[in-house]
Write a structure and sequence with these properties.
This protein is of the alpha/beta class. Helices cover 25% and strands 30% of the residues. The protein is built from 13 helices and 23 strands. The strands form 5 sheets. Strands 1, 2, 3, 5, 7 and 11 form a 6-stranded mixed β-sheet that branches. It has a 6-stranded mixed β-sheet with strand order 12-10-14-19-16-17. Strands 13-21-20-15-18 form a 5-stranded mixed β-sheet. A hairpin with a 2-residue loop joins strand 2 and strand 3. The radius of gyration is 41 Å and the shape is elongated. The termini are far apart. The N terminus is likely disordered. The structure holds copper (II) ion. Copper (II) ion binds next to loops.
Length: 502
């Protein structure tokens, strides 16, 4: 089988064509064109050969101690693996090295890197790699398009120091990146980075599944959501909870911590923040100079990185988030740094006192009362409102009267001679504002004189049948009907009388 046929067997034709276009290989002819091993000039060929140490995130390879250039051999294997995205949620991740993010690659400025991209034979798709640390077409993508069961080799010299993202650039690119195909490569400056006590590797990525956040089972990738940039998950290191609990980053009080933080995307940027910490130094965008000190939140672009450094001064759990905070609390972008050691209560006291506090609440209560009084006064002084309120009471009172009082006092309020005194035009009613309340509440017996006529009968107590508001309403009706006029009665008034009358 010739190489071209072999490649086509492993790769769907459309993917191949798209990938070829993306990689800009038209000029170079067939993607499987090979130039043969590079002949390096003698001084470069003399670089000592080293195998790159590739460790699993959030660990990073040890700092580079050597002060000379080397010929570093990197073997990176692409694996398509089913892993947990969240509790009960599985996902088929495409990975550089079996993990998301891909293995951290650490080299030195000026190094010659012999890169081998190995596409595991059990994989279904071709892949390649674009390393942002590479100066050359596609950052290496143009030379690394690799079918399953194949291995591609290319060599580059690391000209620029810095922290760089690498990712798969095979079409459809958002799908390959969206399935987890990204990682970081650190090109240490010749003089190295300042020594710190702890270094960690964290990458943020957005994931797009057919099911909603937390929907269980093996979740398929959702291309439409990727295009809309509506991720279902936004996570650190490839899964919800990947840096939480037992998996948290750790440090001891007094240590200096360096985070190599990258954003794989494919779409979102990150407002990277550690709750309760301040970055002493930030190397924005993964550059080699810390241009900012004392930073709360650093913005990291998609396909970009940042180096942050800080000393941990007090023990506790410090939470890593994308401060676009729904992503942290609803989509998974939350990790932890657990710091152990001695408390320093000068820097942070912890909770000192828990006391009852009513301050602003009491103030608020007072203001509310004042406001209510103000409104009541306004209402009282506003004839329109007063009239309205009274009218409402009259309407309600009329219904109470019809159902309870009219049988005796008659619908027209004139009563019945010798039996029930009139309420219409009653001088007895008018003589005392409070007495009618007592009569309705407690009833009335004994002789009374109304409009010159004596009645000596009994009115039953109504207090068990009516509430304060209903009594206020019915008396407002009675005192404002059949030619009677008077102020409205209020429920408060009735309540007071009810309290005062045994
Ligand atoms: Cu890929």
């Amino acid at each position: 089988m010739n190489p071209r046929t072999a490649l086509l067997v492993g790769a769907p034709l459309t993917a191949l064509i798209l990938a070829t276009a993306i990689m800009g290989q038209e000029q170079e002819g067939s993607p499987i064109d090979t130039k043969g091993p590079v002949i390096l000039p003698p001084d470069v060929a003399a670089f000592p050969v080293e195998q790159a140490v590739l460790v699993v995130p959030p660990q990073v390879p040890p700092p580079i101690k050597r002060r000379y250039s080397a010929h570093v051999v990197v073997n990176l294997e692409v694996r398509e693996v089913v892993r947990q995205m969240a509790d009960g949620v599985d996902y088929t991740f495409w990975t550089f090295g079996g993990e998301v993010p891909g293995r951290f690659i650490r080299i030195r400025e000026g190094d010659i890197v012999e890169f081998h991209l190995n596409n595991h034979p059990s994989n279904k798709l071709p892949h390649n790699i674009d390393l942002h640390a590479v100066t050359g077409p596609g950052g290496g993508a143009a030379s690394t398009f690799t079918a399953p069961g194949h291995s591609s080799q290319f060599t580059f010299q690391a000209l620029n120091p810095g922290l760089f993202v690498y990712h798969c650039a095979t079409a459809p690119v958002p799908m390959h990146i969206g399935n987890g195909m990204y990682g970081l490569i650190l090109v240490e400056p010749k003089e190295g980075l300042p020594a710190v006590d702890k270094e960690y590797y964290v990458m943020q990525g957005d994931f797009y599944t057919v099911g909603r956040y937390g929907e269980e089972g093996l979740q398929p990738f959702d291309m439409a959501k990727v295009i809309d940039e509506h991720p279902t998950y936004v996570v650190f290191n490839g899964a919800v909870g990947s840096l939480v609990g037992d998996h948290a980053l750790t440090a001891r009080v007094g240590e200096t911590v360096r985070l190599f933080f990258g954003v794989g995307g494919p779409n979102l940027i990150s407002s990277f923040h550690v709750i309760g910490e301040i970055f002493d130094r930030v190397y924005p965008e993964g550059g080699t100079r810390y241009v900012q000190e004392n930073v709360q939140t650093t913005l990291v672009p998609a396909g970009g990185a940042s180096i942050v450094e800080f000393r941990v001064n007090v023990p506790g759990t410090f939470v890593l988030v994308d401060h676009s905070i729904s992503r942290a609390f609803n989509k998974g972008a939350l990790g932890m740094l657990k710091v152990s050691g001695e408390e320093n209560r000068v820097i942070y006291s912890g909770k000192e006192i828990d006391a009852i506090y009513l301050g602003s609440q009491a103030e608020a209560g007072k203001r509310e009362a004042e406001l209510k009084t103000g409104i009541a006064t306004d209402i009282k002084n506003n004839p329109a409102i007063t009239g309205l309120t009274k009218k409402v009471q009259v309407d309600r009172g009329k219904r109470v009267y019809a159902s309870l009082c009219s049988a005796c006092h008659q619908p027209d309020g004139n009563g019945l001679p010798g039996a029930f005194p009139p309420l219409a035009g009653s001088d007895y009613l008018k003589a005392d504002r409070e007495r009618p309340i007592r009569i309705v509440l407690k009833g009335l017996t004994g002789p009374i004189t109304v409009n010159g006529k004596t009645f000596n009968s009994a009115m039953p107590a109504q207090e068990a049948m009516l509430n304060d508001q209903q009594i206020a309403d019915v008396l407002t009706y009675v005192t404002n009907s059949w030619g009677n006029t008077g102020d409205a009665y209020s429920a408060d008034q009735v309540r007071r009388v009810r309290r005062e009358t045994p």
